[in-house]
Design a protein that fits this description.
Distance between the termini: 21 Å
Order of helices and strands: HHHHHHHHH
Radius of gyration: 22 Å
Structural class: mainly alpha
């Protein structure tokens, strides 16, 4: 069976050399871009504050610092609504930097800060999806899920990035979990349909290719 499969693939490559050559080159370019983006993202993360936002090093009381988190988040949301997505992302990043500047927190305060960070990372993911920066969007979704493993928004948004890059299997994993957590969510249900349609289209394309070979 394995030998026959190998023979079929070899014949397909022989009959469709141009197609496979183009496809392999596209995959190589996409993979290289993914690697470069990953390196860039890692370098940005290593520097500390994201998106060039300077960290406030003042030692403020909890309530005063939280006010800055809330005000920056509100300003970012307004920027996003006005279509200033990049500036919104920077403002959310500034709010996150404030979240990292708390000290001597009680257990209750730690919970509040974690909740604020999850919301901010989710909003960052939303911005990067709008900017079609799928890697950064996924990274921010991952940060959310490290804090709140059952966050439906983060699962949905990460699935969105996978569908945009036609990573259907990865998308299905997140969609399935999101549906289990929120079965009535219409946005998740729509994404199920998008994923199913994408997988079917790829399957039909492969079937057509095999049909030409044996026709």
């Amino acid at each position: 069976c394995e030998a026959k499969t190998a023979a079929v693939h070899a014949k397909l490559h022989e009959l469709n050399a141009g197609y496979y050559s183009t496809m392999e080159e596209d995959l190589r370019v996409a993979k290289q871009k993914e690697i470069e983006d990953a390196k860039k993202w890692a370098a940005e993360s290593a520097k500390g504050p994201s998106d060039g936002v300077n960290k406030d090093t003042r030692k403020l009381k909890y309530d005063d610092r939280m006010k800055l988190v809330i005000s920056n988040k509100a300003e970012a949301t307004e920027l996003f609504k006005d279509g200033n997505t990049e500036h919104a992302a920077m403002r959310y990043a500034k709010a996150l930097n404030h979240c990292d500047s708390f000290f001597d927190l009680s257990e209750e305060q730690k919970g509040e800060v974690k909740k604020a960070k999850a919301a901010l990372y989710n909003n960052m993911a939303m911005c990067y999806i709008k900017l079609e920066k799928w890697l950064k969007a996924r990274e921010n979704c991952r940060y959310v899920l490290e804090i709140e493993p059952e966050n439906v928004k983060a699962l949905y948004r990460r699935a969105q990035t996978h569908t945009e890059e036609k990573n259907w299997d990865e998308a299905e994993v997140d969609i399935k979990k999101a549906l289990e957590l929120s079965p009535e969510d219409k946005a998740v249900a729509r994404l199920v349909a998008v994923c199913a349609k994408g997988k079917k289209k790829e399957k039909d394309k492969a079937k057509k290719t095999f049909g030409k070979m044996f026709g």
